[in-house]
């Protein structure tokens, strides 16, 4: 039985675990903090726009475990907000327990507070990794899902300082990239103005700190849109990592989504000005705690990889999520994670690995982003199924579909139905 060791327990790491264990591997997740899901702990937005298509493609391929958990923990389903349709909002208080329980049932070993600091190599092959407690972990194959956010020095240098976000670098140590530790020449995202990195695009307000009227509206409709008086407006659209939410509506209005807390669709907003908006007089930030000043910085240390999600230059290393390129979002992390997990097992067994067909949105996105990252213009953009440049491409190519039966039929016609539900060690 191949042994797959995953560094990082965000959405990508959890999805990689699903992909690998269903393929027949023994799987260990080494998570830097004391909780899974990373920024997914304060996320919530699923199925918006082209993410609906990507979700159903992965479900049809048998890798939809985590999407089904998100559906089952959704506080609101099939809602709309500016620029985004047929949206589900999962409950951020329920999601961790649901994912943890599912991974436990699958037999995934999860080790918390394991910040990997050293790697032992044999030429271009990883033999073992070591954490801050000097514990040594081995594997046949490794998957880097450490993400691209932080650590503090990046937030200080390229952002507005440590925003005290859910990644909690001061408590658990900042992110260390496995790729960087083994000598991979990693890439850094740039903004159109040439500056480095991008700021996380949303905050969380304590729902109970808002007016009763706004609370009731959020509970009933899932979304609240509050016009910002012109003298209080702040324009942070250009710095957002999530360019699908960089529309004028998000500058002119406070847009709140009900994910348990109230998700404020802005990278930050001065607290004093925020409290001058009717209904927000007592507003309080829950994530990041200094959301009136700034937010976490992301898109540092992305790995060069092929379309199998194998990292170039290292024999037994794969990557997923933001490590795999300028793909923004939980959906994007999950689909790349499942593929990386499955291919890691195929690699360990010396079996042909999978490239997803470009006739599917998932396959096209993985291939397209790899090519885009070879150009300076491409490195200045962010790509997501839910908006901006890649969603435009989906629509132009006819990849955006919302009929579930049609999506599943297409996957089946391409020969990929339930491919991620197969234990490939059976005939190894």
Main features:
single chain, 428 residues, alpha+beta, FAD/NAD(P)-binding domain, 5-stranded parallel beta sheet, 5-stranded antiparallel beta sheet, 15 helices, 18% strand, globular
At the first level of CATH, what is the class of the largest domain?
A: Alpha Beta
- Under CATH, the topology of the largest domain is which? FAD/NAD(P)-binding domain
Q: CATH superfamily membership of the largest domain, which one?
A: FAD/NAD(P)-binding domain
Query: Could you tell me the mean pLDDT?
Result: 94
What are the segments in which pLDDT stays under 50 over at least 5 consecutive residues? none
Number of helical regions: 15
Report the radius of gyration as a whole number of Å. Answer: 20 Å
Q: Distance between the terminal alpha carbons, to the nearest Å? A: 9 Å
Q: Helices and strands: which structural class?
A: alpha+beta
* Major sheet details: 5 strands, parallel
The quaternary state of the protein chains shown equals: single chain
CATH architecture of the largest domain: 3-Layer(bba) Sandwich
Total beta-strand segments: 18
Strand order of the largest sheet: 6-2-1-10-18
Proportion in helices: 25-40%
What's the structural domain tally?
2
The rough form would be described as globular
The proportion of residues in beta strands is 15-25%
